[in-house]
Each structure stands twice: as structure tokens, then as C-alpha cells.
Amino acid sequence: MANGTAHRQPARRPGGRNARVRTRILDATVELVARDGIAGFRYEEVAECAGVHKTSVYRNWPDREELVVEALLRYAEDLASIADTGDIHRDLVEFLLALAGGLETPFGQTLERALQPGRQSPTIRTLTRVLDQRVAAMTRRVETAVERGELPPVDSGFLGEMISGPVHLIVNRGVRRFSREDAERVVGVVLAGIRATAPER
């Protein structure tokens, strides 16, 4: 499973065969969730998909929910990370492109459907907390931009909603891909609006 998702080192035994086996199991879990959705995920199919013995799955993740959660967390970690290059426009553009790239994968689409109101399980609530951490990272980046004078004082949560909303809209409609040009335009319009409406000091 490529899909541009990042692999973090497993928490247990950072090297060796067990780490490789765990990575294969988590990758297989992501593939199966992308194919069948979270509700349709079948625990017993993981070993075959990963090419490992069933006991390797059960030993590392005795509980189905634990396996799904860890696979989701690995995927979500880099779904929409944000850098700090000193250029807030550039960093927000890259943030949107990373977000769109993650959401455009089959797994990302599965997560979008699973995160709809009224359909959340304990697994999805766990993932939501991780995605909230991604939003918090973007918030910190905006606050840093304000401190540096790149932006006037702004509600960072509102800014995040303004720039990320079009990404979800375009990706979920499925008519076309979210492009760098889209990201540049969205960020440009939102930042221009924030600067133009900022109260004078």
C-alpha cells in the first residue's frame, strides 16, 4: 500500500523481524479498510493479506479495534502536517496539498465517509482526536505567523476552516483533483481577506 502514507517506527522493538512483520500487518489493515470500509473490515483476512501467520496478528493485536486504531493513527499522522519555512503562504499551500493528497486516496475517502456525523465508533473517535492534533499544528503555525508579523491577529481556527473547506468540497465531489493552482488561489484569497479586514492598530 503506497498511497503516499508515511510509516512510523512501531512502538515495540524498533528494529528486527518483528518490526517488519508489524509494518506488513498495519499496511495490510490499511489496504483492507480502504477496500471494505471500517465496518466491513475483517480481522481474519489480515494475515493472508500481509503474508504472515495468523498468530503474528493475534499476538501483536489481540483486539480488532486496537489493530484498526493503530493503522488509522499511522495514516493520519502525516495526513496534513505543516512545515514552518518562514513563508506562511507557502506553508499553507503545502498543507492543503498534503491534505488533498491524503483525502484523495481510497483510504482517505473511507475516512471521510466514516467521519460523517452519526456514524462514529470508538475507533473513529480516536482518529478524530489525532486529526484534531493536525489542526492544532496548523493553528500553532498561524499563531507563529502572527507573532512574526506575517499576518494580523486572526482566529486561527476560522482561518483553518476557510482554507480547508474547499479541499473537502472539491475532493468529495470527485469531479476533478485538487491542484496546486487551487491551493494557491484559496490561500491567496483567504490571506488577502484577512489582511484587508484586519482592524487598524
TrEMBL record:
Any Pfam family from its record, for instance, is TetR_N
Q: Which residues bind DNA?
A: 42-61
Q: Which domain of life is it from?
A: Bacteria
Q: Which UniProt keywords apply?
A: DNA-binding, Transcription, Transcription regulation
Gene Ontology molecular-function annotations: DNA-binding transcription factor activity; transcription cis-regulatory region binding
Q: Identify the residues that the record assigns to the HTH tetR-type domain, covering every copy.
A: 19-79
Extract the PANTHER family matched here.
Answer: HTH-TYPE TRANSCRIPTIONAL REGULATOR RUTR (PTHR30055), TETR-FAMILY TRANSCRIPTIONAL REGULATOR (PTHR30055:SF148)
Q: What protein name applies here?
A: TetR/AcrR family transcriptional regulator
The organism is Streptomyces sedi
